[in-house]
Write a structure and sequence with these properties.
- The structure is a single chain.
- The protein is an alpha+beta fold.
- It has a 4-stranded antiparallel β-sheet, covered by helices on one side.
- The radius of gyration is 12 Å and the shape is globular.
- Helix content is about 25%, strand content about 45%.
- It has a single domain, classed as ACT-like. Chain A, domain 2 (Alpha-Beta Plaits), CATH 3.30.70.
Length: about 80
């Protein structure tokens, strides 16, 4: 299966889920191009963007696992190339 490039946008509203989130990202480290995290204390959330290069099913699995965490939501946008 061909690899695709995508961005996964993550909003963390529940600080207790951060350890699980980081563990999942570590498991998928081979397909992560880069990661940027921005704390937003005014709203009590963290905003994270992950750039990935992997087969679509692997990206979907990662996004799905992240979205199942308590207080975490994620959305994925794929490049057209």
């Amino acid at each position: 299966m061909d690899a695709r490039v995508a961005i996964i946008g993550i909003i963390v509203e529940e600080a207790s889920s951060v350890e699980s989130l980081n563990q999942i990202l570590h498991e998928y480290g081979d397909c992560i191009i880069g990661r940027m995290g921005i704390p937003y204390p005014k709203k009590g959330i963290h905003i994270i963007s992950i750039a990935v290069d992997a087969p679509q099913d692997k990206i979907s699995a990662l996004s799905g696992r992240l979205g199942k965490l308590e207080g975490v939501s994620s959305k994925t946008a794929y490049a057209k190339v």
